[in-house]
């Protein structure tokens, strides 16, 4: 019987979006049904499978995107789809890279759910792109999110602090304003799909915060101070305001973790 880490590595290796989504949803279903029960110890490669498109550019070469007009919405949804595509892999990578007998089953439950929801988010955004005559891969994208994964590949606490607790928390900060701007210009179904993505990102930030705190407690580390030390090292210029304090609080991320890190 296949182990969870073997299934995670298979999903990571899939290059085409449809294959990655299929394997992700199949693995999540089998895990939830108990048909995959053993964690295993299969480790991932440095980089996951990627399709030939989109073209990957340095972040400073990417054009600024807006939300006005169909072209602006396509650019925004494409950028979000690229983030979600990477986020599928981040869910599987944290399972396969950091699998350990010291982590309880709940850790794996949470990150299987994250990978599953990210796959659903990607599928929803791809559907919206196709409804406007576009598709994932039509526009360039950057590799910033996976570069963050590479820089935190040797330390679970750094991965949790940087990716779900900071990058995904930042998405909670910016998304409500984006949805407000789109209100009245897009259909109800589109707004509901975007709101669902935001609501489930709260779950993902909560998973990062929960397991960061758990591991810190197991190691006798002050979670707040350790989070701040990691983020000061990774973001020496500080974190951008404004913070979505309500959304972050719903995710269990206290303000005294991140407020001292705010950029001046």
List the helices and strands and how they pair.
Blueprint: H1 4-13, H2 17-32, E1 56-57, H3 69-98, H4 105-131, E2 141-142, H5 144-151, H6 156-182, H7 188-219, H8 223-234, H9 245-250, H10 255-258
Parallel strand pairs: 1-2
Helix pairs in contact: 1-2, 1-3, 2-4, 3-4, 4-7, 5-6, 6-7, 6-8, 7-8
Describe this structure in words.
The protein has 264 residues and is mainly alpha-helical. Helix content is 65%, strand content 2%. It has ten helices and two strands; from the N terminus they run ααβααβαααααα. The chain has helices at 4-13, 17-32, 69-98, 105-131, 144-151, 156-182, 188-219, 223-234, 245-250, 255-258, and strands at residues 56-57, 141-142. A two-stranded parallel ribbon has the order 1-2. The chain is globular and about 50 Å long. The model has no long low-confidence stretch (mean pLDDT 94).
- Please state the oligomeric state of the protein chains shown: single chain
User: Sheet bearing the most strands, described?
Assistant: 2 strands, parallel
- Rg over alpha carbons: 18 Å
Strand content: under 5%
Strands in their spatial order, largest beta sheet? 1-2
Q: By helix and strand content, what is the structural category?
A: mainly alpha
Q: Give the averaged pLDDT, no decimals.
A: 94
Number of helices: 10
**Number of β-strand runs:** 2
């Amino acid at each position: 019987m296949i182990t969870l880490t073997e299934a995670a590595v298979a999903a990571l290796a899939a290059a085409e979006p449809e294959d990655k989504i299929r394997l992700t949803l199949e693995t999540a279903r089998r895990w939830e049904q108990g048909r995959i029960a053993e964690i295993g110890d299969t480790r991932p490669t440095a980089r996951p499978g990627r399709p030939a498109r989109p073209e990957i550019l340095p972040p400073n070469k990417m054009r600024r995107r807006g939300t006005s007009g169909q072209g602006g919405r396509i650019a925004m949804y494409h950028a979000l789809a690229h983030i979600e595509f990477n986020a599928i892999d981040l869910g599987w990578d944290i399972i396969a890279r950091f699998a350990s007998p010291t982590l309880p089953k709940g850790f794996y439950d949470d990150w299987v759910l994250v990978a599953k929801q990210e796959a659903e988010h990607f599928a929803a955004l791809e559907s919206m792109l196709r409804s406007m005559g576009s598709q994932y891969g039509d526009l360039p994208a950057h590799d910033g999110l996976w570069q963050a994964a590479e820089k935190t590949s040797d330390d679970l606490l750094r991965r949790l602090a940087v990716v779900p607790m900071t990058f995904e928390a930042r998405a909670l900060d910016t998304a409500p304003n984006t949805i407000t701007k789109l209100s009245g210009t897009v259909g109800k179904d589109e707004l509901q799909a975007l709101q669902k993505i935001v609501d489930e990102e709260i779950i993902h930030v909560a998973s990062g915060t929960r397991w960061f705190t758990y591991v810190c407690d197991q190691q006798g580390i002050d979670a707040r101070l350790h989070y701040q030390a990691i983020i000061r090292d990774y973001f020496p210029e500080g974190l951008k305001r404004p913070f979505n304090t309500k959304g972050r609080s719903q995710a269990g991320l206290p303000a005294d973790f991140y407020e001292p890190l705010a950029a001046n």
